[in-house]
Amino acid sequence: MPTSTPAPAIQWPAHFHPDHAPVHVVNDLFIPAPAEHIWAWLIRAPLWPTWYANSKVDWAPGRSSDLALGLEFEWKTFGVHIRSCVQEFVPCERIAWNGVGFGAEVYHAWLIIPQAGGCRVLTEETQHGWGARLMHFFMPYRMYDGHVLWLESLSIQATGGMPPAL
Question: pLDDT digit string (tens) for 32-46?
């Protein structure tokens, strides 16, 4: 009997598992580009604001230009200042970071799944906190829509090639 390989899945810390989080958003998009291009644009956080309008990244001069396991960074998204740390990092396959901001504690993960002609890119985020709950209650599609924009913008960048060196 043939066996199938299970689809890759997010490796959730227990606290952030969707079964235990009041806010959970899932987005995915097929991107017609190699995993290496998608990965390079995704980990080059200082460039996010140039192609993803919902981000502003505070990057210390002289610091490596790419995200890495354990790297802490500060940024602003959805109007909230976030302190994040990269929790998972498997090149060209998966990355995840946590984040703490005003009224929110988050975990945002990405999977890059190679397929014929490109890659399926999956992003999921879970959130805890009063601010996260309020935002989700009053604007239930805001994070979903923001992640659609992020994925579509990532697709444009990745199909154009590798990001510039910083």
Answer: 999 999 999 999 999
